[in-house]
UniProtKB/TrEMBL annotation:
<dbReference type="Pfam" id="PF02594">
    <property type="entry name" value="DUF167"/>
</dbReference>
<dbReference type="InterPro" id="IPR003746">
    <property type="entry name" value="DUF167"/>
</dbReference>
<comment type="similarity">
    <text>Belongs to the UPF0235 family.</text>
</comment>
<protein>
    <recommendedName>
        <fullName>UPF0235 protein AWC07_16660</fullName>
    </recommendedName>
</protein>
<dbReference type="GO" id="GO:0005737">
    <property type="term" value="C:cytoplasm"/>
</dbReference>
<dbReference type="InterPro" id="IPR036591">
    <property type="entry name" value="YggU-like_sf"/>
</dbReference>
Amino acid sequence: MADIVVVKVKPGSRKGPRVEPVSGAELTIYVPEPAVDGKANEAVARLLAAHYHLPRSRVELVSGARSRVKRFRIDR
């Protein structure tokens, strides 16, 4: 079963790494990595995997690679 999670990313944040639920399947994620060369995207994927207690291979960026609002597929 796969779920789509909408994530608002705050790259380069001193609050991170941190996951804050907003509503339903929406999250705000703070990561210290900069939004350069996909570093923030990878950090968000790792953090989502840890948040849902899944291996990193079960988390896939579906859309929003260059946006602060992203959609990830979580395979449970």
